[in-house]
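Quick log. Single chain, no ligands specified.
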Amino acid sequence: MISNVARPSPHVDVERFRADLREGGVEEMVGALLTTFAQDCPERFATLEQAVQQGNTKAIESAAHAFKSGAGTVRATVLAGGLASVEAAARAGNLDSIPEMLEQIRAEYVAVLREIYAVAQK
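-> predicted structure:
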């Protein structure tokens, strides 16, 4: 489980996420929610990647949207923004730009996971 230790991050704004949860009276859930997000990431990315490989615009849009929601919730804003771009491209039927965006998302998602697990080690 991820500890409640936080530090400034370019990939995950743990302090903002903590503040969001504090406002809702559930700050103690920070670690559990980050852990759940980190555990879900590989499957969410694989689902998105498979949809892109199949060229299925509806599946791409759906997978990007679901992954984006989780990323936004934990304040992984760069990742969420990239996923929003993929979602919009799929909705518009612009499949040509998606593979390059997918590689950027892959790099950001790996960085997000590294940061979440670094927080867990403290």
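The radius of gyration is 15 Å.
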